[in-house]
């Protein structure tokens, strides 16, 4: 049975962004970003935050928590902001998150003219001083650097309407508790306080009791099983850096060879972009999202059923109620924003006793959300290594062998007998067979292996409990210590702005040293710098090698990562 998805019925559908009371500039920004509907945390948090309530939310990265606090905060920003002192302060545990959260604020608040500034320990203080001096509306800071600026008198908090403590459990684990207390002492008593944390240990509870007033409590990662039994499908996940996701998706499709697959994205924009990318890579992909008319959707579904398309790239809204017999694979291009959404997505396959496969491409940061989904669904998601080019080759040979076996079992080979007999006068039978296999093999996916690129494997970050600095004071001013898993981070003073991609760093390191790609751990690329995790034993060799070479044609500062960088 198969049916075409219909437009959502407004009487039963969850609220849209417009129903949450957001102003038109923000709705326009969300629509331009292709967000089709609020995630569960946004649905629950935006209303109370707009009303000025304090909030205690349990939510991990990937749930959409940033927009959940950023949108109300931008809306509450007064139109006239004469002093230039910030009206909102967001405290985050890491530089990386400071940059991400400010970028999110920029994207949502462009039309409101919001001035947003990330401040963190890795950046020259002079630039921050100038920016603060020019006036800002929202400061996103790591606690250590925020406190430095408060002490210098360059960050004045008297005008604050809202303070957000984001990833509060991480901040406590990194030893920021005292810094946070000290910062809060400089804020007005009448402020709104928002605390988000992926876990709720008693220390977070204590912090909430001390600093939040009658907060709304939101728990997104509910521990009870979700309604309706999750279908029995093979579930796995690959950890992959954002930049390598299209290649990883291609690799997964090549290795899995699905009959037809649906790939879920978070936004319309991503659906369109990915459809184009995958078509460019030789897959027959069709987009399906809420911005399309019923007629357009019908055409897409027709092409999928008729076999002229084999990849459907869709948003959750568009795929609601979709039932297509041919679908064998569901791919989550991003980790879904809630376990319910995961269950809903994988329910597109594995129906009526059919076999189904669900694959999730997760960024290393989203690892915890996967754990939450496992806990809630009570089903295991195995984390696999992204198939290498060698794996692809092996798998393709297996497929060719299976096809040949099938052909041998069928009895329609006679027309070709004359060829083999003729050739066997001249060549050994084995040679003839080998040449035939080669031709058959090459006809399946011409050029697949030659074009295949190696996709860097990324390591799961060490669990918080064993991360260095746990419970040590000082946070972003503490000296770097070796990580407990035998690795350390190397700082490289070039990042996204210089066009640096993970493969450039891997290439530079493996090219300059005796270290192999698989010994390199997680790679973080920020706007202006990158951090690469390497075994402690070879860190000095890596540093010396990189100092002696160029990356993207440029010389870079290279050293062991210290959080008290100038
Ligand atoms: P976060 O959990 O805040 O780190 O957000 C995870 C990702 O989801 C970010 O890339 C956001 O841009 C994206 N996102 C947040 N809310 C939505 C939404 N309602 N629809 C689509 N994407 C979203």
From TrEMBL:
Domain Helicase C-terminal: where? Answer: 248-393
Biased composition regions of type Basic and acidic residues, renumbered to the chain: 462-479
Q: Which residues form the Helicase ATP-binding domain?
A: 46-218
Which Pfam family name is an example for this entry?
DEAD
Write out the entry's keywords from A to Z. Answer: ATP-binding, Cytoplasm, Helicase, Hydrolase, Nucleotide-binding, Stress response
SMART domains given in the database record: DEXDc, HELICc
Taxonomy, superkingdom: Bacteria
Motif Q motif: residue span?
Answer: 15-43
Is ATP-binding among this UniProt entry's keywords? yes
Q: Where is the DEAD-box RNA helicase Q domain?
A: 15-43
Gene Ontology MF, one? helicase activity
Give the start-end ranges of region Disordered: 448-489
Coiled coil where?
none
Family designation: Belongs to the DEAD box helicase family.
Protein name listed in UniProt = DEAD-box ATP-dependent RNA helicase CshA
- Annotated organism of origin: Micromonospora gifhornensis
């Amino acid at each position: 049975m198969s049916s075409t998805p219909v437009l959502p019925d407004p009487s039963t559908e969850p609220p849209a962004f417009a129903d949450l009371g957001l102003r038109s500039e923000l709705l326009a920004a969300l629509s331009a970003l292709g967000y089709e509907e609020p995630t569960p945390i946004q649905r629950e948090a935006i209303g109370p935050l707009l009303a000025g309530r304090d909030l205690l939310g349990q939510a991990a990265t990937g749930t959409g928590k940033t927009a959940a606090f950023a949108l109300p905060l931008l809306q509450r920003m007064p139109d006239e902001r004469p002093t230039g002192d910030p009206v909102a302060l967001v405290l985050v545990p890491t530089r990386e998150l400071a940059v991400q959260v400010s970028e999110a604020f920029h994207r949502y608040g462009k039309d409101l003219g919001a001035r947003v500034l990330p401040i963190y320990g890795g950046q020259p203080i002079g630039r921050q001083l100038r920016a603060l001096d020019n006036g800002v509306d929202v400061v996103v800071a790591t606690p250590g650097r925020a406190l430095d600026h408060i002490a210098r008198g360059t960050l004045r908090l008297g005008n604050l309407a809202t303070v957000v403590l984001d990833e509060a459990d991480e901040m406590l684990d990194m030893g920021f508790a005292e810094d946070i207390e000290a910062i809060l002492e400089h804020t007005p008593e009448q402020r709104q306080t928002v605390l988000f944390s992926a876990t709720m240990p008693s220390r977070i509870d204590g912090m909430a009791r001390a600093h939040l007033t009658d907060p709304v409590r939101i728990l997104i990662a509910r521990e009870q099983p979700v309604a309706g039994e999750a279908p029995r499908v093979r579930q796995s996940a690959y950890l992959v850096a954002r930049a390598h996701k299209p290649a990883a998706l291609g690799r997964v499709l090549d290795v899995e060879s699905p009959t037809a697959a649906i790939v879920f994205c978070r936004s319309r924009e991503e659906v369109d972009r990915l459809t184009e990318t995958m078509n460019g890579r030789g897959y027959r992909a069709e987009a399906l999202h809420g911005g399309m008319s019923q007629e357009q959707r019908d055409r897409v579904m027709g092409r999928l059923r008729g076999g002229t398309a084999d990849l459907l790239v869709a948003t959750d809204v568009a795929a609601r109620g979709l039932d297509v017999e041919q679908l064998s694979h569901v791919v989550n291009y991003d980790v879904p924003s809630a376990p319910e959404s995961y269950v809903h997505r994988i329910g597109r396959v594995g129906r009526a006793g059919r076999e189904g496969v669900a694959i999730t491409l997760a960024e290393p940061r989203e690892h915890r959300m996967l754990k939450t989904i496992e806990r809630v669904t009570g089903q295991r998601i195995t984390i696999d290594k992204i198939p290498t080019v060698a794996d692809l080759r092996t798998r393709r040979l297996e497929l060719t062998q299976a096809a040949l076996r099938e052909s041998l079992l069928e009895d329609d080979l006679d027309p070709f007998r004359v060829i083999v007999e003729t050739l066997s006068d001249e060549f050994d039978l084995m040679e003839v067979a080998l040449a035939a296999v080669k031709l058959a093999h090459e006809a399946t996916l011409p050029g697949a292996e030659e074009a295949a690129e190696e996709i860097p494997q990324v390591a799961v970050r060490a669990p918080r409990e064993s991360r260095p600095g746990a419970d040590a004071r000082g946070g972003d001013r503490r000296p770097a210590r070796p990580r407990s898993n035998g690795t350390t981070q190397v700082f490289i003073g070039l990042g996204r702005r210089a066009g640096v991609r993970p493969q450039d760093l891997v290439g530079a390191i493996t090219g300059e040293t005796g270290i192999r790609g698989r010994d390199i751990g997680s790679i973080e690329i920020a706007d202006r710098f990158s951090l690469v995790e390497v075994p402690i034993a070879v860190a000095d060799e890596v540093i010396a090698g990189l100092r002696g070479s160029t990356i993207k044609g440029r010389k870079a500062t290279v050293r062991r990562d210290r959080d008290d960088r100038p």
